[in-house]
Amino acid sequence: MLITTTPSSSAVAEGDLMEGAQDMTTEEFAIRSSSAGIGAAYSCDEFSPLREVIVGNPYGARIPRQDVSAWLNLYGDLSRSEMERVLTGEFPARVIEETAEDLEVLVSTLRGLGVVVHQALASDQAQEFGTPQWRTDGFYNYCPRDLTLIIGDMIIETASPMRARYFELFSMRHLFQRFMLNGSTWIAAPRPQLADELFLIDEQDRPVLGEQEPVFEAANVLRCGKDLFYQVSASGNELGRIWLERTLQAYGDFTIHPLRKIYEYTHIDSTIAFLRPGLVLLNPERINDTNLPDVLRKWDAIWCPSMNTEPTASPYPLSSRWIGMNLLMVSPELAVVDAAQHELIRALERNGIDTIPLTLRHARTLGGGFHCVTLDVLRDGTMESYFD
């Protein structure tokens, strides 16, 4: 069944909540947030009923200056000569404006379902910054899920291996502080040095992520209660997995399942998607019987149909065609899905999942679908084991 929605009066508008916030003390701001129905962050999985979410902001987005970290994380499949042809600087104005329009539809749709929606702040990504070892400019605030991991009531800022993303989370720290003051734990992975030695060059003259320090992005991780699935790739190394594993030992009985040699470029959420307990969506180009995680073999699987694609605004898009399976579960029975993916929509509906077809016209160009551009900070689920 295709679902349409209208705005709900019960949803809290970010602008209403933020009005006058700059004149409040931290404690006053927390009280106001709480009175608006916003408390601690709490999210344990990818599918329980969604109550509160952060949506990305496309304004200011740009391709950062070329360095080995940007090459690895944005264009790891390009040769050195191809990389030299990539244009840096701001994305075309049309891409940004149309993306802003599409995100506004997403925001309105979620609010129409009663979900509280916040949005990451825009920032000047053209400003130069750096350390004694390197200089760069920024990237974007379009994909809030990329660098923030919510595990129960804990907010974890992860350590991206991409230099241009070093200060990206400043766009959401006003929200993280609010959640902390209302009960959440807020921690950050060790700030990485991102020295040249972290980035190796393989025999094909392409960059490879090394193991000099822990680095990983939150989008390398999928959550399913007490089980976390960590993809080792160009955006997350083994030391990042070990840091996460050791850190979580202090907070509960978690199991981290390492996924190796499945998809070595970046994130996991266009490869595996948890739809509800016992049902998973799998990318047939990357997952097969030899690398399917053992704990998922007892679950029912939907093998994702081929993706419908359109021409991109850039000759070097940041995502593959599989960004079309990057969906957002609003509940175990309802998904926000790329409207162009008709076969996927039919497959979901055959399995009892209603869909809300929406559009992100530049998902491939900017490198983010509906799962990427949202960060669920409050869901109804509890911390349980789904694989016992």
TrEMBL record:
Annotated GO molecular function terms are: glycine amidinotransferase activity; scyllo-inosamine-4-phosphate amidinotransferase activity
- Any idea what this protein is called? Glycine amidinotransferase/scyllo-inosamine-4-phosphate amidinotransferase 1
Tell me what organism the protein belongs to: Actinophytocola algeriensis
Membrane-spanning residues where? none
Q: Which InterPro entries match?
A: AmidinoTrfase
The Swiss-Prot or TrEMBL record describes its family as follows: Belongs to the amidinotransferase family.
Which UniProt keywords are present, listed alphabetically? Transferase
EC number(s)?
A: 2.1.4.1, 2.1.4.2
